[in-house]
Design a protein that fits this description.
single chain; 161 residues; alpha+beta; four-stranded mixed beta sheet; four-stranded antiparallel beta sheet; 2 helices; 26% helix
Length: 161
């Protein structure tokens, strides 16, 4: 009984000390973060459909495409017949494209947009999810293109969730 009481006392004391340390750390970090914290707001975008990466594009490290010339040097249009067969129109006078290009894979990989957030400094963070499907007999380079209004024309950071 005495041993059990001592063990409980040790556990409670160690939890209490940890809690105090965490509170101090949180207070210091919270104060520090308050000076650097920025309010993020969601930015609307539209997904560009019916585009592919050109075979001669090489490795694409560029994330933001602000002109038609830049964009067309890397991406081609995949027009198909029928209603809705044309690629999504992009007005580079008023819009730009955020591109996510993954390395070649033999899996049917789908890239899904999650969010586009802008902080009060104008920096944008685009989050996406990669969903791996079944193996295929051929390779693909998964691509996700989103069109953003140039009213939100800050530095872009892309993150995979």
């Amino acid at each position: 009984m005495i041993i059990a009481a001592l063990a409980i006392g040790v556990v409670l004391t160690s939890c209490e000390n940890t809690k105090k340390t965490e509170e101090v750390t949180e207070t210091e970090t919270g104060t520090e973060m308050a000076a650097h914290h920025s309010e993020a707001k969601e930015v609307t975008y539209k997904v560009a459909e019916k585009y592919f990466i050109k075979n001669d594009a090489g490795e694409v490290s560029q994330v933001k495409f602000e002109t038609a010339e830049e964009f067309n040097s890397v991406f081609g249009m995949a027009t198909v017949m029928g209603e809705g067969g044309k690629p999504t129109a992009i007005d580079f006078e008023n819009e730009y494209v955020i591109a996510v290009v993954m390395p070649a894979t033999n899996k049917a990989t789908k890239l899904e947009p999650v969010s586009l957030m802008e902080d009060d400094h104008g920096h944008l963070t685009f989050s996406y999810e990669a969903i791996d499907g079944e193996e295929q007999t051929h390779s693909i380079k998964p691509v996700l293109l989103v069109i953003v209004d140039k009213d939100h024309n800050g530095e872009v950071h892309v993150e995979k969730i």
